[in-house]
Amino acid sequence: MKTVTVNASVTYDVLIENGCLKQCGTFAGKVFDSSSTAAIITDDTVAHLYLDTVISSLQSAGFSVCSFIFPHGEDSKSSSVLMEVYHFLAENNITRTDFIVALGGGVVGDLAGFAAATYLRGIRFMQIPTTFLAAIDSSVGGKTAINIDAGKNLVGAFHQPSLVVCDPTVFRTLSCQIFADGCAEMIKYAMIWSEDFLQLLEQCKLQNQIEDIIAYCVDIKRQVVEQDENDCGIRMILNYGHTLGHAIEKVTEHTVTHGQGVAMGMMLITRLGIRMGLCDSSLLRRLSSILQKYHLPTVYDGSLAELAQVCLLDKKRAGKQIRLIFVSTPGQAQIVPVDTDILTTMLKGELPC
Ligand code: GLY
Fold first, then answer.
1. Where are the extended beta strands (E) located within the chain?
2. What is residue 146's DSSP assignment?
3. Could you give the C-alpha distances from 329 to 88, 158, 270, in angstroms and in order?
């Protein structure tokens, strides 16, 4: 078993092992009081596949268990579903000595995590990520949120889990596209943090080393989050490729997935960086080739001017500036404030290929 211990405002373990889902109750028993109730929150897709295993493991470890299942998909990350979760917790007499289990991908983790952050002014929770993306990104680091009409993740809280249990064998039920979404975040980690990790990803057969690679990504996230839990400084480098990626997702009305958007966003920001003298041109060829290896797109063929408009609406913009993340060479990420009119001019202009 691989264990990564995160020392944030809460200290917790991320446990990674093929086949460990059926032991999640045993692991929870080391962190939560076995006289407590585990309130599982999951979606209908994941419930069908893994809920029985998780319930029986938690019950074998002595926990009382109740579960709430909501329809899968981003639309469920809403105030109305959140309210249903609160009612479910209240009806099942969940108190501060009990805990929530977020069983699923990013939507489940964000929604259940935000319920845990706010119900009774905060109760403990554990994450059981069932997508590659959730395993290496959203289940670790304590960002929780729901969406409102004005935008995604606009209402949220930092609330660290007390335990993360990751069984990579559950990724076998993911579509190629959803698995590739996680690969975009994996490549992001290598780009911002480590030439050695990038070389490993360029050479390896991912399925043969999945536990090591998840542990590697989680350990990078651990190092970043331990320095900047509240996302005021270095944590922003985790947004590499994301500003333009989010804009692409929005412009394409989410027909481009998050991972595909991040992949195109990393390519575009590198092209901008070359134009600004911040990135080595050889990086673009390397990035393009690793994205292709992991079945991710390298080109956004829509209007860059339109992307510029969407970036101007980015809520993370500070006045007339937007903070963009550039990687000059693998492992060397920098946060660069760029005037929005300069960004617009450059996106409207011809970018080097
Ligand atoms: N997903 C980026 C972060 O946790 O900061």
1. 2-7, 11-16, 37-43, 64-70, 99-104, 124-129, 143-148, 151-158, 163-166, 321-329, 332-339
2. E
3. 49, 31, 10
Residues 6+ apart with CB under 8 A from 127: 102, 109, 113, 134, 139, 140, 161, 163, 164, 165
Q: Determine the residue of 235, 237, 246 to mutate for testing ligand 1's pocket, defined as the one with the most ligand atoms within 8 A of the Cβ atom.
A: 235
Mean pLDDT of each 10-residue bin along the chain, 353 residues long: 98 98 98 97 98 98 98 96 98 98 98 98 98 98 95 94 98 97 98 98 95 98 98 96 93 94 96 92 95 97 86 75 94 93 81 62
Distance 44 CA to ligand 1 centre (A): 26
pTM: 0.95
CB 298 within 8 A of CB 264: yes
Dig out the tokens for 156 from the structure: 């949220």
Contact residues of ligand 1, CB 6 A cut-off: 137, 141, 143, 231, 235, 238
